[in-house]
């Protein structure tokens, strides 16, 4: 399967008349082939993007185009649809993001540079919303497993929903088999399968501990969605959450989310390997 990663958005550049300049950046998923093209904001439309796709592909279009920026998902999605390519909304566009960071260093040298503050990876981040009440389970806890056992343990279990991308497997992250990979296990009770399906639709990316007066666990999902999984203020839970974050850092950001009906270990509903992207 051929996969492209794409970003189409305004840059910190304007014409002499003050019109924003947009730039399309395309690359293959491994970053081996790249393509850049600019247009005025008034020209930014799906037809223009589709023409650039055709030029980049030179007759060989990708099967899938990956996009991480919500603001350009519609434009790129429509262009991809016109050409029969699937669109995938994902934060895991690593090659594309590396290119955007490199190119951001070039803009200040250009005559059309605006001087505005610019973060090439910035997306709108709405405040986190609470988990729907109907999906609340019976409880949750922090968990952990050694990296060497992670894949074999969960790959062999009869779990209806499993998301274990190759690029997140410990061996591909260069993790030692003895590194402790942290996670969060949710006992969903009667709502376990419903919760797992909801999570699958949301597209889990990472779980973070946020401190403060109303601290707790926040699930990063989709392109920019955030959901409050749990809140707590007791010292024991806070200490455990800090250990969770420390273990995440030691494991290169790798962690997991497990949903099960209860803590008996007999049945499971969903499992996701996670890493911030």
From TrEMBL:
Residues 3-100 form the RNA-binding protein Tab2-like N-terminal domain. Residues 119-275 form the RNA-binding protein Tab2/Atab2 C-terminal domain. InterPro entries: Tab2-like, Tab2-like_C, Tab2-like_N. GO terms for molecular function: RNA binding. PANTHER family: PROTEIN TAB2 HOMOLOG, CHLOROPLASTIC (PTHR34556:SF2), PTHR34556. This is DUF1092 family protein.
């Amino acid at each position: 399967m051929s996969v492209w990663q794409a970003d189409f958005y305004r840059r910190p550049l304007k014409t002499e008349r003050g019109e924003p300049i947009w730039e399309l950046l395309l690359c293959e998923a491994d970053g081996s082939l790249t393509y850049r093209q600019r247009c005025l904001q008034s020209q930014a439309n799906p037809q223009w993007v589709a023409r650039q796709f055709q030029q980049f592909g030179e007759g060989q279009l990708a099967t899938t185009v990956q996009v991480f920026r919500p603001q350009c998902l519609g434009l790129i999605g429509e262009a991809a649809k016109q050409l029969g390519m699937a669109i995938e909304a994902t934060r895991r566009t690593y090659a594309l993001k590396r290119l955007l960071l490199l190119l951001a260093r070039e803009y200040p040298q250009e005559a059309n540079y605006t001087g505005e503050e610019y973060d090439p990876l910035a997306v709108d981040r709405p405040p986190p919303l609470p988990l729907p009440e109907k999906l609340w389970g019976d409880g949750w806890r922090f968990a952990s497993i050694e990296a060497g056992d992670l894949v074999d343990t969960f790959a062999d279990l009869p779990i209806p929903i499993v998301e274990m991308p190759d690029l997140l497997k410990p061996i591909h992250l260069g993790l030692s088999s003895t590194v402790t990979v942290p996670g969060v296990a949710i006992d969903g009770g009667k709502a376990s399968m419903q919760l797992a399906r909801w999570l699958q639709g949301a597209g889990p990316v990472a779980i973070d501990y946020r401190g403060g007066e109303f601290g707790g666990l926040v699930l990063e999902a989709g392109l920019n969605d955030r959901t409050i999984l749990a809140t707590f203020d007791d010292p024991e839970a806070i200490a455990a959450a800090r250990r969770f974050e420390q273990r995440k850092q030691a494991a290169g950001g790798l962690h997991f989310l497990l949903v099960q009906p209860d803590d008996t270990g007999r049945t499971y509903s969903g499992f996701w390997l996670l890493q911030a992207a």
